[in-house]
Specification:
The protein is mostly helical. The chain folds into two domains: 155 residues, Up-down Bundle (Growth Hormone, Chain: A); 81 residues, no CATH class. The chain contains ten helices and no strands. Helix 1 runs antiparallel to helix 2, helix 1 runs parallel beside helix 3 and helix 1 runs antiparallel to helix 8. The longest helix has 32 residues. The radius of gyration is 19 Å and the shape is globular.
């Protein structure tokens, strides 16, 4: 309907995940400081408004920009919801059940999304796949303030927000993703290879920096825990294969 080029079509699809992946670590860290429920609400508003704006985009560039803004909002949702589950359910058995529900909802959404989108596109205009987000966001904004308690790390535990770490994580993740994406589309060439290598270096510097901070964004010592390290390794392998 918007007559995008092949490259624009690819960016319309990929831009959301591109921005979301780059900001996940940073947004989780911001939620620890300003409040996880507050970040969830702010991100939901951003995601909802960007969805509506995307539905009424009149050219490919506008749609790509709105998808990027959707990614910013989306990056707040996953770390906020999972962290809030941890704080809402202190009983170990209840917490396991809550995380199972959270995981099932995430998996079911990923599985049903393409099916629901296909049905919408069969019966309604293309922008229906964005407008369907609006009532869900309205419901979330109505229920979360009433049902979900706020939680933020105590001031002494949170420390100052480290912009250098945020930039390193963003640059590292986006460089690797962009390099892999370009290689998949256009084949192996020098520039994507340099981007992947640069992302790996930035990732290495990020990890080294976390080891020197009193309040790291991610504590590298967590990976020494066999249960945590094993589950993360399996998760990363599954995501990479997907």
């Amino acid at each position: 309907a918007l007559n995008p080029s092949g490259t624009e079509q690819l960016w319309i699809i990929d831009m959301y995940g591109f921005v979301l992946a780059g900001l996940l670590i940073t947004m989780g860290n911001i939620g620890d400081r300003i409040g996880r429920r507050k970040l969830l609400i702010i991100g939901s508003v951003i995601f909802g408004l960007a969805s509506v704006a995307a539905a009424f985009a009149t050219d490919p560039t506008t749609l790509i920009i709105e998808r990027a803004i959707q990614g910013i909002g989306g990056a707040t949702l996953m770390p906020s919801t999972l962290a809030l589950v941890r704080n809402m359910f202190h009983d170990e058995k209840q917490r396991r059940s809550a995380i199972a529900v959270w995981s099932a909802g995430l998996s079911a959404g990923a599985a049903l999304g393409p099916i629901v989108s296909g049905l919408l596109l069969n019966w309604f205009p293309w922008n229906s796949v964005f407008l369907i987000n609006a009532p869900v966001i309205v419901l979330l904004l109505a229920l979360v303030p009433a049902l979900v308690p706020e939680y933020r790390l105590p001031q002494g535990q949170a420390g100052k927000f480290d912009f250098t770490s945020a930039l390193l994580s963003l640059g590292g993740v986006l460089s690797v993703i962009w390099g892999l994406k370009e290689t998949a589309v256009n084949g192996f060439s020098t520039l994507p290879a340099v981007a992947i290598a640069a992302g790996a270096v930035l990732g290495y510097v990020f990890v080294r920096r976390q080891k020197t901070l009193d309040h790291p964004m991610i504590d590298p010592q967590l990976f020494r825990n066999r249960d945590f390290g094993a589950s993360m390794t399996v998760s990363i392998a599954c995501s990479f294969c997907l």
